[in-house]
Amino acid sequence: MKILVVYPRWTGSYGLISGYFARKSGGVIPPLNLALIAAIAREGGHDVSVIDAEILRIDENDLVNMVVEEQPDLVAMTGTSPFFHTTKSFAVALKRVDPSIKILVGGQHITIDGEKAFYDCFDYGYNGECENQLLKLFKKIEQDKPPYGVKGVYYRTKTGRVSYTGPNTYARDLDSLPFPARSLLPYDKYKIGTLHGRLPFTSIQTMRGCPWHCIFCASDKLNTTAVSKRSPESVVEEIKHVVDNFGIKHFFIVDDVLTLYFDDHLKKTCEYILEEKLDITFEGSTRANLIDEEKVELMAEAGLIRLSFGLETVDTEMRKTMKKQVPLNWYSKANRILNKYDVEASNSVMIGLPGETRETIKKTLDFLENDPYVKQANFAIAVPYPGTEFHTIASEGQQGMELLTNDFSEYRRYGTSVTNVGELSAQDLVDLQNEGFVSVYSKPHRWGHVIKKNGWFGGFLMLIRVLKIVMGKYIKVFRNIRFRPIFRFKMPNW
Questions:
Q1: Rounded CA gap, 71 and 98, in Å?
Q2: pTM (two decimals)
């Protein structure tokens, strides 16, 4: 069977400047999930190819034409909630041109929303992790038979009725999975901005899952609170495979919590990297309280150059609400340790969580500006994605929240808000996000970092954005001023 795995373009909805930084700062990473699907399909004897329309910047019409020209038996896609509309739009456009092409959609959004996200333009929908069932499903599709015995599948019967095969099984033995088929991706086009310059990179996974239950995460709905680990030997083998076959030496580790199992997982992985004398760099995300000097020293020696973690807010009560009760002192400590070993510390902040006020946002900004160890921060607007406890709180109007729309295409973290919080309107949240952005990136000592990560053109766009925000603020203030004339002149009544 001829299978075409497609990743529709999504950054176009962000606009010129925000879209540029979404692409340049690492928002566009190699679609590891699709490359893995391709690898499994290829092992099953299928003819497989991949089109990453985002990295190739292929618009919808051109993408449809490319797919029709390929004449695949099946198009496989994925989609997260904020960009599921692009997946749907492409499927509709493809079906309009060639209704005979079967379309399979999977990913987070349909896993959470289920049948509601299984639109008429899709022939099959997959709920949850698909690796264990994928070849069975492909065989059923190839034989044009209903997917009986394949768990987790939505499909349409001959009469058009939607049917579901029931909850699926999950891939817990990650070592049994093949390496993603990176050769099917335009691997030379993926680059990421770092303090070491713009580096060719690829994504890699060493663990799946996160044991915590933060209100802004849909881990319960996605069944990802159970953690599955790859063996350190398997991880290092994949790294060597990538270096030898593609010449790529920087790795974006997509694990939810990189340092969760340090002693029996990450530590051994780093030791194997050093034993093999692999000249690589890597980055990932974790929690601030899972960072200490011993871990960072070893990771930095093995190639760690950036570590991200979520501060979100410094307000104690809000931190209790969002179920992320990491003591605040850990953030200062984490930044200090990472600075010591020349590892970039990326602090992330969420504006607009339940209980947010101008005062709580100011406290967070003051912490970031006054802590001597914090070098940079990213400011995002908190989004109540479907399947999260946060979405329930917002949709039910709890804790001063008001959900303004269920149009998930608006559920973006930058430049827009889909909630009001207490006395803060959606526009107030955007203005405060801009204020946080300016407080970080208007400081001259940070401009070297910006240029290193985004190049001179990126630095120019960043300057434009800062100036635009600042000028907009002063224009707004100027418009609100009411001038009273000093002299009054009365026309004579001739």
A1: 9
A2: 0.89
